[in-house]
């Protein structure tokens, strides 16, 4: 049994954003890719989005977001042009990193 330091109360510092695409929405998404990339770039430059990734197979995407305010993250995800298709939804998962090997991310 691990007997290290006691756990502090959970306070999310990051969010894992999972994008889920409905079947048949890919053609609409392709038309919105330039706007979606502008949206992503804006939040990368602001320091909110730390990493983005495509899912394979093409069923959605993944974004690692920095922030302590879930409402702010919800407002940011609501800006995504992909949502206009009606066939994309975000799943927002609050995470509290405990270890990192990524440069610039300390826990």
From TrEMBL:
<dbReference type="InterPro" id="IPR005545">
    <property type="entry name" value="YCII"/>
</dbReference>
<dbReference type="InterPro" id="IPR011008">
    <property type="entry name" value="Dimeric_a/b-barrel"/>
</dbReference>
<protein>
    <submittedName>
        <fullName>YCII-like protein</fullName>
    </submittedName>
</protein>
<dbReference type="Pfam" id="PF03795">
    <property type="entry name" value="YCII"/>
</dbReference>
<feature type="domain" description="YCII-related">
    <location>
        <begin position="14"/>
        <end position="93"/>
    </location>
</feature>
<comment type="similarity">
    <text>Belongs to the YciI family.</text>
</comment>
């Amino acid at each position: 049994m691990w007997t290290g330091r006691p756990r502090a109360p959970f306070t999310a510092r990051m969010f894992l954003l999972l994008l889920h695409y409905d079947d048949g929405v890919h053609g609409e998404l392709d038309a919105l890719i330039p706007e979606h990339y502008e949206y992503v770039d804006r939040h990368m430059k602001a320091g909110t989005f730390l990493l983005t990734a495509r899912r394979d197979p093409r069923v959605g995407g993944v974004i690692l977001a920095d922030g302590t305010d879930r409402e702010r993250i919800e407002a940011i995800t609501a800006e995504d042009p992909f949502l206009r298709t009606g066939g994309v939804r975000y799943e927002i998962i609050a995470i509290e990193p405990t270890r990192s090997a990524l440069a610039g991310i300390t826990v």
